[in-house]
Automatic annotation (TrEMBL):
SUPFAM superfamilies per the UniProt record, alphabetical: ParB/Sulfiredoxin (SSF110849), Rho N-terminal domain-like (SSF68912)
Domain Rho termination factor-like N-terminal: 157-196
Annotated Pfam families: Rho_N
SMART domains: Rho_N
Region (Disordered): 134-164
Organism: Nostoc favosum CHAB5714
Ranges of compositional bias, category Basic and acidic residues: 148-158
Protein name: Rho termination factor N-terminal domain-containing protein
Length: 196
């Protein structure tokens, strides 16, 4: 017989597919089911990579569930059922995988992740709208606008003044060190003095 089911130590198996491609919840649920019946109804298909190691060809989800089962209960989850490819049956098994296991690994999980991502994007967009609404309702108070316009008109008034005129104004406001200030410093000092 060319094909027989073997029990392989989970620690000797690796997968080229990332675990993150699958739902953590579904992996954990499957792991618990594997432990309940102490086995798996859908054996892995493995390729030997060395005398003591194997790589998953088909059954990546099942492999990760078995790895979690081993973490939960190292004794019950130590071995997993698998078919091991050898040069005599490799081509035929690949054909069976394509015909009988018509699914791509993780199709349902990818769909769920995309749906979850779409939900998160929708929620984020709604949060942004709420923030925009809050910001739009918080208009500046009329008094603050008048003050800003008043400051602008005073500043333009000071720009039209000469340095001696600004120094005289600074002297009247009792601004310290006005005699050593240039025009822009005088304007800033006078405007700041009026604010306080």
């Amino acid at each position: 017989m060319k094909l027989s089911n073997s029990f392989i130590a989970v620690k000797k198996i690796s997968s080229p597919v990332l675990c993150s491609q699958f739902s953590e919840d579904k992996l954990r649920q499957t792991a618990e089911l594997i432990l309940k019946i102490e086995g798996i109804i859908n054996p892995l298909i493995l390729r030997r990579t060395s005398a003591q190691s194997y790589e998953v060809v088909d059954g990546h989800f099942e492999y990760y569930a078995a790895a979690i089962a081993k973490e939960i209960d190292p004794q019950k989850g130590e071995y997993i059922g698998a078919f091991v490819l050898d040069p005599d049956n490799e081509e035929v098994l690949y054909k069976q995988i394509k015909l009988m296991r018509k699914r791509e690994f993780g199709d349902n999980d990818v769909k769920e992740k995309l749906e979850s991502l779409a939900t998160q994007i929708t929620e984020l967009a709604e949060s942004v709208k709420k923030i925009e609404n809050i910001l739009s309702t918080q208009k500046p108070k009329p008094g603050n606008q008048k003050k800003t316009q008043k400051e602008k008109s005073e500043k333009s008034e000071y720009d039209a003044m000469t340095v001696p005129q600004l120094k005289e104004k600074a002297k009247q406001q009792k601004i310290m060190g006005y005699s050593k200030m240039n025009k822009s410093e005088l304007i800033a000092a006078i405007a700041n003095n009026l604010k306080s």
